[in-house]
Design goal:
With 138 residues, this protein is α+β, with helices and mostly antiparallel strands. The chain is 14% helix and 30% strand. The chain has a 6-stranded antiparallel β-sheet with strand order 3-4-8-7-6-5, with no helix packed on it. It has a 3-stranded antiparallel β-sheet with strand order 2-1-9. The longest helix has 7 residues.
């Protein structure tokens, strides 16, 4: 059970077809095409489906993988981690803990020079960036 539960029809009405495919059906946007892959804007990344705070720009790093990468979520419990054995390999799916929306995957031990040696590989379409100027005005 998630804090925010909606029917499939409610999610379809709220999200675009592309957002629905990724957030609710665990799809993946094409590499190097996402809105936030290369952005350096300072701010907060929120779940596009429920607005929960997930990541901050100071946790983002350049991994050259084609999707935005973060070394940790803002809060340890902001992201739910679920074993994913699809595609014939073992991965760890990252979901929004508040609404269960698919964000991307977590990869560990890749040797990036980050404090955690973890890479949350996140679909841009799964999040929305709230620039620091906007978040400080609230």
């Amino acid at each position: 059970m998630y804090e925010i539960e909606k029917t499939d029809d409610e999610w379809r009405a709220q999200l675009t077809a592309a957002e629905y495919a990724v957030l609710r059906k665990a799809g993946t946007e094409p590499a190097f095409r996402g809105e936030y892959t290369d952005t350096l804007t300072i701010g907060v990344y929120r779940c596009r489906a429920c607005d929960a705070e997930l990541f901050r720009s100071d946790q983002k790093f350049e991994s050259h993988c084609g999707w935005p990468s973060f070394y940790a979520p803002t809060e340890a419990d902001a992201v739910e981690l679920i074993p994913d054995d699809s595609l014939g390999m073992r991965r760890i799916e990252a979901r929004c803990r508040r609404c269960g929306s698919h964000l991307g995957h977590l990869f560990k031990g890749e040797g990036y020079p980050t404090p955690t040696d973890e890479r949350f590989c996140i679909n841009s379409i799964s999040v929305k960036l709230e620039p620091a100027e906007a978040s400080s005005a609230n």
